[in-house]
Design a protein that fits this description.
alpha/beta; Nucleotidyltransferase, domain 5; 23% strand; globular
Amino acid sequence: MAGFVAKATLSGKLSTYPLFVDKIQDVVGLYMPPPNRTIVLCLAEKFQIRALDREQPVPQATPGAAERRIHTCLRNGTTTLFAALDVAAGAAVGKCYKRHRAKELLDFLKKLDRNLPEGPDVHLVLDNTATHKTPKVKAWLARRPHWCVHFTPTSTSWLNQIERRFAELNRKKIQRGVHRSVTDLEADIMAFIEAHNDNQKPYKWIKSADEILASDKRLRLKTMNLNPISGD
């Protein structure tokens, strides 16, 4: 089982979200451990993924030698990946779109709804992008009382577990990939998702909400000490 270290705001920007504490406790409460007889899905979008082709072939790596590759690229278009991770199972579902709008989000939510088993409540973890809060999205969710939405605080993308899968996708497939078309790129993305699902392992969230909030408090105090307020 892969370990997931929740680094709180030590690895990013300090959040000024007014319900920061409540939202941290709410979302982490879904992870440690996932509640029984419910489905917890972490959903997000990775947009403007570029299909890049190197101007020169990447030399084959050899033992003891650093990887070499030219950094000038040919751009062949972009795609947007909508994906959701089942926290308990570790399996992900994804779909690529040309654009990043509420229309595409609704289409992806409908795809999820069609493939979920009937009965269990669905807890959906989302961030605070405008796409997730449009009237059409809200209305669609309101018609499904067994869906419960949990929003992460601002500046806390690390709190959404699908972001860990996005990081692996970027490191293992996109950064080193050569894609001569958007079709090639999307095929590689879906192959990556399917390969992980064939050997699915859930991430293990190892920091409680109290530990995350304590780290955040220490960082805030350190920041205040480094930037003292001058006075007369």
